[in-house]
Amino acid sequence: MPTYEYRCGHCGPFELQRAMGEAPQHHDCPGCHTPVRRAISAPHVNRFPEALAREITRAERSQDEPEVVTSLPPPTGRRASTGGSNVPPRPVPPPPRR
Ligand SMILES: [Zn+2]
């Protein structure tokens, strides 16, 4: 639910949660009960941190238009895990002589 901001000249800003499009243009200040005009600002539809919102947007977009990988990712200096073992595989024995 979006949060709408009002700014009382006496008490400062306060916020009101209303359904989208149902916030009144004026609302009584909870402090001094003076009708206060709604501040012109974008409603805070979400309050996620910007990085999190960006990742969620990217994840949702990947459902319809996944990002195409055109090159290898940069090397990180670590090899991909092969199962947790550092023991190299045994060499294949030579074929038996005849
Ligand atoms: Zn007030």
UniProtKB/TrEMBL annotation:
What Pfam families would the database entry show? Zn_ribbon_8 (PF09723)
The UniProt record lists the Putative regulatory protein FmdB zinc ribbon domain at 1-41
Q: What taxonomic ancestry is recorded?
A: Bacteria, Bacillati, Actinomycetota, Nitriliruptoria, Egibacterales
Could you tell me which residues belong to the region Disordered? 53-98
Name-wise, this protein is: Zinc ribbon domain-containing protein
- Biased segments, Basic and acidic residues type: 53-64
Q: Which organism is it from?
A: Egibacter rhizosphaerae
UniProt xrefs under InterPro entries: Regulatory_FmdB_Zinc_ribbon
Could you tell me where the Pro residues compositional bias lies?
Answer: 88-98
